[in-house]
Amino acid sequence: MNCPEDLKYTKEHEWVRLKGNIATLGITDYAQDQLGDIVFVELPEEGEEVEKGDTFGVVESTKSVSDLYLPVSGKVIEVNDPLLDSPEIVNEDSYGEGWMIRIEMDDKTELEDLLSAEEYEAFIKEEAE
Amino acid sequence: MKKTPLYEIHKNLGAKIVEFGGWMMPVSYSGVLDEHHAVRNKMGMFDVSHMGEVLVTGPQALDFLQYLTSNDVASQKIGQCQYNLLMNEKGGLVDDIIVNRVAENEFFICVNASNTDKDFEWMKSHSSKFNVTVENQSAAFGQIAIQGPLAKKLINRKNCSLDEADVGHFYFSKAILYGVPVTLARTGYTGEDGFEIYTAADQTAKVWNALLEEGKPAGLIPCGLGCRDTLRLEMAYPLYGHELNDEITPLEAGLGWVTKLQKGDFLGREILIAQKEKGVSKKRVGFIMQEEAIARADYSIFNGEEKIGWVSSGTFSPSLDKKIGCGYVDAKFSSIGTIFSIDIRGKKKKAEVVSTPFYRK
Predict the structure, then answer these.
(1) Predicted structure pTM score
(2) Which of A89, B16, B18, B233 has its CA 20 to 30 A from that of B268?
């Protein structure tokens, strides 16, 4: 499974790209593969204040609804609107064009709980067993 | 967990496997959307070996089935398939089934995978009053469905003792396919032309592999339960456990067309007669979401603040590119064009009642 080295990961199969105070979030290649064809994505509004551990939306296949979880707290500063019309972008390019939201972080110490690419790869290997 | 004779084949084809009704089944191979479009535009092949097969024979087999079901079995010709409902005494549904009339008093019944044991026990428990034998033959059979506008080309004089033209819509016939004795039924759960092919369990793999080899160059792909659900919901075909259960009556479910109250006595008939006279209080409807959201089974339906029903099934329709669903609402909200709202995880989203099937060629 594809797990870019420069990203951080969560056990809920999200990735985090960090740049200064801004965190970009999406779901991993493993997650999109498990879900199959994604037909709907629900994302928060720009400007929303969000808390680590809360859900920030859902990603849906024809049969299932999966919650998206926040690994950090802060303010939603950007939402990837094209996903609302073309949810399949998440399947096609989960780490690139399939990014979901950008958050201005409140507390960078929350990042300590995130997994490295290596740790995430080990985690999904365990899950598969 | 039960496995069909084709389980290893599915794994080798890279299928995603999911548990369904006690069976490990392929949910998709190349993707639900890809498979859905293949069935609508070319052809797809499904492993439906998990379905159950019950044989009903004996001098009173016809009387027995007339009593247990809603449709008029007496009117069914030999060689004909009939969609029917297994009833209970409350006027509710034990299962929806396809009855195949093999002879005057010999019936081969296909039942839902999740209800096989229940249906068999139910039929057995009512059989003592009739001179009839009921056998659960499910383990002896495998079943493959080929569905799509091109599917009929797979049944031809080169590979089969019959040509597709020999088996009309909702008829069945014994045949030899790739040297294997089969029963070919011109039935399906997708809204497309095609066949459901019954084989001996240990011959299923041979037939599957041969069909895939022959059909692949013309576009045949294996299809799983994921697209089976999107296809059937586009046709507003009911799924037991969603649109149908032991409390819902055929009249509420929109299945009056397979409910022949005049045929004579059957389980639940009195309840249905009374319901027909009074009018049903709740009705199944098809709806299309008017706001961006997908309704899911068991979500509540509202008229303003008042709860008026519930969603029985919902999905994204690949052929319509819309979010569709079925549900039950108070009869006064069941007219085409009615707008109601559905509670989608805490937010109410609008939907409009439409005529079904959603998909028409």
Answers:
(1) 0.96
(2) B233
